[in-house]
Amino acid sequence: MREAVEIREELFQRIPEDEKRLNEIVRPSMSYWQDAWRRLKKNKLAMLGLAIVIFMTFLAVFAPLLTPYDYFSQNLYSANQRPSREHILGLDQFGRDLLTRVLYGARISMTVAYASTLLILIIGVIYGGVAGYFGGRVDNVLMRIADILSGVPGMLYLILLMVVLGPGLVTIIIAMGISSWIGMARMVRAEVMKLKNQEFVMAARALGVSNRKILTKHLLPNSMGTIIVNLTFAVPGAIFAEAFLSFIGLGVSAPQASWGVLVSEAMQMFMIFPMNLFWPALAICITILGFNFLGDGLRDALDPKMRK
Predict the structure, then answer these.
(1) If you placed Cys at 252, which of 86, 220, 222, 256 could pair as Cys (CB 3.0 to 4.6 Å)?
(2) CA–CA separation, 146 and 129 (whole Å)
(3) How far is residue 190's CA from residue 185's CA, in Å, rounded to a whole number?
(4) Sequence-distant (≥ 6) Cβ neighbours of residue 85 within 8 angstroms
(5) d(CA 182, CA 124)
(6) Contact in structure between 70 and 223 (CB atoms under 8 Å)
(7) Does the reported pTM lie above 0.70?
(8) In this structure, how many other beta carbons lie within 10 angstroms of the beta carbon of residue 10?
(9) What does the DSSP assignment read for 163-178?
(10) DSSP string, 9-25
């Protein structure tokens, strides 16, 4: 038998305080989304973009409360009046308050952008999720359909839909949604195909979880980071597309005013009154820039490879 070892105090040595601190946790444990928000806050351009997005959305929502004028009343005797205390941005060629028109234009442009992006999200996530999860013949058929649709230039497809469905706010949203979902579907398909063979999905299958629940409860939530980034970049594309359609006369009907309508109207007298074009164009540029800044920041914050 082995000889018992006597345990004496002098056999042990106390660890110095500085060595104890080496094993301390540097920062508290946090979830994926908490860590992403922490890194997003460190990105100054991303926070600037978030502030711009919130500000423009606030203007769009509360436009009727921010101005005493309406967007359709005309006063031809005061047409093209320069900025004054009563009319901060002046009046347009029909004597309508330009600031009011820009604010109400934000309502329409942002509504179209958000609603069409939501439609893109719904169609793209369902289509791409089903194609990526089931694979095989289902994936082959669905993606060949997507390839055929993507062979038609997006703007041409959008214009054709607008001509068939007729102009109008709801028509623009539907046309932009059903003509721009292919990129989202391909992205979701790629993410689902990357995740569907991992251990947590195999464990869910072994437990008898249905395909629908695996897709909606496991695969899609784990793809949300990439989905959110792509949605952020889809919004400025929708704003620009709406402005283009309104510019060529396929947008909302008069007297409604989106930013594209304001630009189209101002182009008729651009050489004489350039400021009528400057303000709606500036609103479009600032909004698109804000979403691009925010999208770049979200891409860096939600990418696990960027963690430090």
Answers:
(1) 256
(2) 14
(3) 9
(4) none
(5) 6
(6) no
(7) yes
(8) 5
(9) HHH-SSHHHHHHHHHH
(10) GGG--PPPHHHHHHTS-
Residue pair 275/114 in contact by the 8 Å Cβ criterion: no
Contact 262/91 with Cβ under 8 angstroms?
Answer: no
Instruction: State both tokens at 132.
Output: 């990526």
Q: Burial, 240: exposed, middle or buried (Cβ in 10 Å; 0-12, 13-18, 19+)?
A: middle
For residue 228, what are the contacts with CB-CB under 8 A and spacing of at least 6? Answer: 298, 302
Task: Say how far apart CA 67 and CA 89 lie, in whole Å.
Answer: 12
Nearest Cα neighbor of 200 from 183, 221, 180, 181 is 221
Judge whether residue 25 has pLDDT over 60: no
Provide CB contacts within 8 A for 58, sequence distance 6+: none
Structure tokens at 152: 């038609």
253 C-beta neighbours (distance < 10 Å), count: 10
Q: Reply yes or no: is the peptide bond before residue 221 cis, omega within 30 of 0.
A: no
pLDDT tens per residue, range 53-63: 999 999 999 98
pLDDT in tens, 261-299: 888 888 888 888 888 889 999 999 999 999 999 998 888
Q: For 204-264, what is the HEC assignment?
A: HHHCCCCHHHHHHHHHCHHHHHHHHHHHHHHHHHHHHHHHHHHHCCCCCCCCCCCHHHHHH
Exposed e or buried b for every residue in 20-57, given b needs 16+ CB within 10 A? eeeeeeeeeeeeeeebbeebbeebeebeebbebbeebe
